[in-house]
Amino acid sequence: MTRPYGDPDPEDADHGDADERPRPVSCARCGTSAQEPPPTWACSVENGVRRYFCDACSREHLRSIEGRLDSAWW
User: Fold this and answer.
1) Mean pLDDT for the chain?
2) What is the rounded CA–CA span in Å between residue 2 and residue 72?
């Protein structure tokens, strides 16, 4: 079961051998990659898919992000 914004329901989590290693991510706009989501990046859930945007793309499209426009409209 998933909760709003695509976050998994904590009651459904397998608390056995949870894999806590950071996962690599890339900016959905420009393709910049990082070993794990940096705190300066924006995260958006569009059509149930989690998308990350680097700090440069986030700053460039700040008004669109605040207006909750899907990235296809940027």
Assistant:
1) 79
2) 24
Residue 52 · residue 37 · CB < 8 Å: yes
pTM: 0.62
Q: What share of the chain is helix, strand, coil (3-state, %, to 5)?
A: 25, 25, 50
pLDDT given for residue 33 in this prediction:
95
Say how far apart CA 74 and CA 64 lie, in whole Å: 7
Which residue is associated with the tokens 């700090």? Answer: 55
d(CA 69, CA 46): 10
Is the alpha carbon torsion for 14, 33, 7, 49 positive or negative? negative
Whether residue 9 contacts residue 2, with contact meaning beta carbons closer than 8 Å, is answered with yes
Per-residue pLDDT tens over the stretch 14-47: 555 556 777 899 999 999 999 998 999 999 888 8
